[in-house]
Automatic annotation (TrEMBL), chains A, B:
Descriptive protein name: 5'-deoxyadenosine deaminase
Enzyme Commission number, as recorded: 3.5.4.41, 3.5.4.31, 3.5.4.4, 3.5.4.28
Residues in Amidohydrolase-related domain copies: 52-389
Keyword Metal-binding applies: yes
Organism: Methanothrix harundinacea (strain 6Ac) (Methanosaeta harundinacea)
Listed InterPro entries: Amidohydro-rel, Deaminase_MtaD/DadD, Metal-dep_hydrolase_composite, Metal_Hydrolase, MTA/SAH_deaminase
Length: 416, 416
């Protein structure tokens, strides 16, 4: 496949008239005049388009897309106990299937090519994701009250460890739902199979304060005392951190999945990204679930992250566009061990965006990253994962049927 | 014209299968089976679409769309003095023309049918806006250093006071750039011609503190002491308000144009919308200029406003979707004296949005306003102002030429 005469971003600047050759699941060359050697004869016209390597959604619960708009504007505990948990108690694999497919549609439309998820019925989530063609790091959620889920963690890894799109991981929910034994088991499993660990960490003030009161240390200090923290860990949220917590996270190489919109909407707080960044921590961006966002769009997440941090610190010069763009791309590629980027040899996970839209005008060589972070609205028109075209010219085959089935599934869930 | 079988929002709920009949510049009927009596035979299929009455952008400087992405991530004073003011000093009417047209394209694409603007060369802005077909409340910016602008304020009102789309107003810039004499002149003029007043008010902490230090009162108290404040006034920003300021604004009926994204990006602060709302003040939403946003999209503004206020007060139940939706619609209709809404007799300013998109799924009768505020991304496909179709099925006639001309104009401005 050849993408012909597209623009790309290189070193923060716009580079025009680049060909991108794709051979099977990988990029075989990028540059002016590069030829396609795959022999499949497929050409995508890139003139007037920007090619970007895929965005990575570092924390979500994709099946919860089925709960979008079901309950908003509520205090956290009534929201969970009166609305979310009762629905979750009724979930079936079929709900997961259509919730995941619905979520994939939105991510394909906003240039997300890989997502990191922790939830229920993850074999079904994996199958649905593969049918949609996206890449995902998936873990079944683990907590003490569900020994059956803990028992299935290792078989789940074995079932998916050699897949081309699905990367299995281990997902202990949080320190307040998992005992030391569960956490240790999760860690052992991750080390044994060399897979990642996905955990919620220090999301709300009350959670951190009550943990400290009972245990005499912060959740981060506690996990560190178990030898749990390393660059194998993706820690979602990290909103309430002491200076000591920040140092530990940076020193251990923990990957932070920052979820700005969810943290704002649930009023959890504003994460100390400035201290994390200064300490050298790796920060990625996640949407969280659509029940607390209510979008799955990293363009929104980039803009909100940048402007919220500027405002929180009264410093408009902090968190410049380029730094936030890296969070959604390169930082996540490193965190999730993805061989990605617009270069020969990388996996062919990328999108094309139409530059002939008002929000990209005026265009200069040095404002493309600003436009991506502050004014692009995520309207991607072509998305490719592993060399397979998932959306072309704004059309995703089968989208209408998925929307109808997801709607029916939601109606069915409510009536159950 | 007849819009057939569209859905609408009524009392916060989704109402399906509604016809909307438009006769000339006004809506002649809304309801199931309503017929078109205009005789023009024009039909727009509304099935699967949501019709919304137009959003109103309560504060912007539209020509500054030409500066989008030109300078970001800078401290306020260097941003103004090194970047924005030098460009503004070189502006010509031709720059205004193409900046305004570019801004209109983005607003048409996001369902904004009317905007409130204060800037330079406003006759040119008015002509460009009329060519694009949008409605606007326009005022030339007034400040002491430019007596020529002050002299032209009344002639500008006379030139435009009988226009069908342009509503002239008076635009004293702010209390720190306008003397008492200038402010009084602006007030007299507004009262004489019964037009609105558009002013920046208490945007930054340093501006309010230095005013208080020199004058012994807040900018709000000062304006009130001049008899300046009434429901004729649209006050942009209102970020740094004392409890006394909040009472004055509410008691005088001043219309607040809240600009959440701009206030965040420039790190100005978070406006006390909770206190303003409790005091009964009328709050509208503005994008500010694209040089400090960098979008002209009220869907983004609604989401950011809601989630930022929730987070600032640690109260996820505050600023529910319906309240924020009213800020972008009904509050602004009252503020700007616009006879708008989806009902017989109202001016025909409305948009159609495609409901068959992932971000509107699942759809229930009672989650449509949540979807509009929290998950819709502003991708409107048809926009109508005063009964004239400005965009149909995503196509705005002449868009590509405007994008090219705006780009050339920006290049020319930089080279000047």
């Amino acid at each position: 496949m050849l993408i012909r005469n597209a623009s790309i971003v290189a070193g923060g600047r716009l580079l025009r008239d680049q060909n991108i050759a794709i051979d099977g699941p990988r990029i075989s060359g990028v540059g002016p005049g590069i030829a396609d050697e795959s022999g499949d004869g497929e050409v995508i016209e890139g003139r007037g388009k920007l090619a970007i390597s895929g965005l990575v959604n570092a924390h979500t619960h994709l099946a919860m897309t089925l709960f979008r708009g079901y309950a908003d504007d509520m205090e956290l505990m009534p929201w969970l106990s009166e609305k979310i948990w009762p629905l979750e108690a009724k979930l079936t694999a079929e709900d997961i299937r259509w919730g995941v497919k619905l979520g994939c549609l939105e991510m394909i439309r906003s240039g997300i090519t890989c997502y990191n998820d922790m939830y229920y019925f993850m074999d079904e989530a994996a199958r649905a994701t593969k049918e949609m063609g996206l890449r995902a790091v998936l873990s079944g959620v683990l907590f003490d009250m569900r020994p059956d889920l803990i028992e299935d963690a290792e078989p789940f890894i074995r079932r998916w460890k050699n897949d081309d799109l699905i990367v299995p991981a281990v997902g202990p929910h949080a320190v307040y739902t998992c005992s030391e034994e569960t956490l240790s088991r999760a860690l052992d499993l991750a080390e044994k199979h060399d897979v990642m660990i996905h955990i919620h960490l220090s999301e709300t003030r009350s959670e951190v304060e009550s943990f400290a009161k009972n245990r005499g240390k912060s959740p981060v200090e506690y996990l560190d005392s178990l030898g749990f923290l390393s660059d194998r860990v993706v820690a979602a949220h990290c909103v309430w951190l002491s200076p000591q917590d920040v140092s530990i996270i940076a020193d251990r190489g923990v990957n932070v999945a920052h979820c700005s919109i969810s943290n704002h909407k649930l009023a959890s707080g504003i994460a100390p990204l400035d201290r994390l960044a200064r300490a050298g921590a790796r920060i990625c961006l996640g949407t969280d679930g659509a029940s607390s966002n209510n979008s799955l769009n990293l363009f929104q997440e980039m803009k909100t992250t940048a402007i919220a941090q500027k405002c929180a610190h009264s410093r408009p010069d902090l968190f410049a566009a380029g730094e936030v763009w890296r969070m959604a791309t390169e930082n996540a590629y490193t965190a999730f061990r993805l061989d990605m980027g617009l270069r020969a040899g990388a996996i062919a996970d990328l999108s094309l965006i139409d530059l002939k839209k008002p929000w990209f005008c005026p265009l200069a060589d040095d404002n493309i990253v600003s436009h991506l972070v502050y004014s692009a609205q995520g309207g991607v028109e072509t998305t490719i994962v592993g060399g397979r075209v998932l959306m072309r010219g704004g059309v995703i085959p089968g989208e209408e049927e998925i929307l109808e089935r997801a709607q029916e599934q939601f109606n069915d869930l409510l009536a159950r």
